[in-house]
Amino acid sequence: MADFDALFDEYSDKVYGLAYRLMGNRDDAMDISQEVFVKIFRNLKAFKGESAMATWIYRIVYNTCMDELRRRKIKQVSIVDKPDLVDDNISVEEIYEADERKKAVHNALYKLDDDQRAVIVMRDIQGLSYEEIADVLQCPLGTVKSRLSRARLNLKEILKDYMELFDEVDV
Amino acid sequence: MDCDKVKELLPLYIDGELSDDEMKAVSEHLADCPQCMEEYEQSKNIAAACKDLGFPAPPPDYKERVIAAVEKDSKKQRKGMFGAAAAVIAAALLIFISISSIGDATGTKGVVSGLDGMEQQEQTAPSQNQALTGSDSFMGDESRAVSEATGSSPQEEGMASIAEAPQSNDKADQDTSAEEAPDTSKSAEQNLAIVSANTEQRKIIKSAYLSLETEKFDNTVNSIIGRATALGGYVSNSEYNNRNEGKRTAHIEIKIPQQSFEQYLGDMGGYGKVVEDRRSGQDVTAQYIDTETRLKMLKIKEERLMELLSKAETLQDMFTIQDQLTNTQIEIERLTGDLKRWDDMVSYSTAVVDIYEVAKIEPEQEDNPNIWKRIGKAFVDSIKAIGRFFEGFIVFLFGAVPYLVLIGIVAWGVVTFIKSKRRI
Ligand SMILES: [Zn+2]
Q1: Cβ–Cβ of B45/A12 closer than 8 Å?
Q2: Is ipTM over 0.90?
Q3: Per residue in A91-127, is it b (16+ CB within 10 Å) or e — as a string?
Q4: pTM of the complete model beyond 0.80
Q5: pLDDT tens string A146-159
């Protein structure tokens, strides 16, 4: 189990974080993370190192999330509302360290299509390179570029009523 | 290049991922088009805001849950591989049920005390030899050899107990046939003492999930956080959502000193309508004790290595010992960390509370409010009963090893026979 500890310590936070940002809530992030590590340990022997360990693991996270999201869409038993855009009259900021910009972006992300949200999360939140994203998604670099391009335009469009939040130049 | 084209290229421009010509053209356009410059700043700031979101920290029981899932899965896979073994165990279960229903209590009791003796020996190493010598009179040469092997390698606890299982059974059989009651009852008493000592310092990680509905959202949130602080707790994480219709929600994770946990949860009803209340406790006593034991042994090893190091005569010896010493110390550090983490998780319980703002609280439905608790209790009782049943079964299983081997061989023969027939 020594391998497990090392591997877990290195990737656990990233797996959970990526799952959280793709799924949008903690319960799902936990379920997905468990499933991901089960898959990792089933397939660790089969992992040939043809790609980096990191992107291999992110690929498992991405595929597991997309499978789950797709499964839910097909089921459509009850349509769960995606989080709506944030209202302006917030009264308990002091407790939540409310950051208008973060909230607006967080909510806007879940209005994007799942595959577009995925590229934004991997590029802008996780900071992966275009090449790494292409490796995770198993698609050509051009596809990453066009998908990210569309995703950013859509995200900006969703946020257009909140643009004053993004006007001030800061570090 | 016109403004529309520039807007289209901006998303990749901010990463510098356009062709050289395009990068240059966009840069030149931005230099003398204030509107596009503003668009550019906004795009950059949105990307920066995404980066600010970051990844949330996983919950404290994350690793335990992942390990549990992985272990469960690997067991499932092993089960698939050893389907035949499962069939044999099922057969043993049937035999066990029939025997225990006949009421052959003495036989199983004997096995129980035999196995208990083994457990005790694992936990209290010094008294182990004494216990074994005490039963020497019943043992043949073969079993004495096993006990000597156990004594000589205390590190290999797991292996030792497996090697010991059938022998304990032999001993028990002889106990009952020779009617050596005093010896058995004595060891049973000792075991009882050990068990009760353990229950007093059980390491249980408590957590609860509650979901509350409230008309007075701000009051509820403030009360829940205020009460936690008053009890010596703190908020470890919180998220806040404000939807269009003005129905706000909050997700708060709170750490409360364990001794005040029940009290805190009990107070929740006063802050809003509790629509969901799930509580759980994860017992890590076994892992904790195991880790403590390993830590003790490692510290002994560390001491010995340091002693050796001071006596080392060649450089090569010194390097080898130093290397081992470093590894041992790293492991000691890791285990100490594990223990501390468990202590922290045990001393602070976790309450996860979701709060939903509602226009008006739905009136309570006209059913007995305790029914769910009763169902829950009945469920837990049944699980416990099943647990007790399987304890008995496992004890029996060890006792039945000789028969099982026989049944296994027969089953294997049958399976091979069928397979060979199919192939033809
Ligand atoms: Zn322009």
Answers
A1: no
A2: no
A3: ebeebbeeeebbbbbbbbbbbbeeebbbbbbbbbbbe
A4: no
A5: 999 999 999 999 99
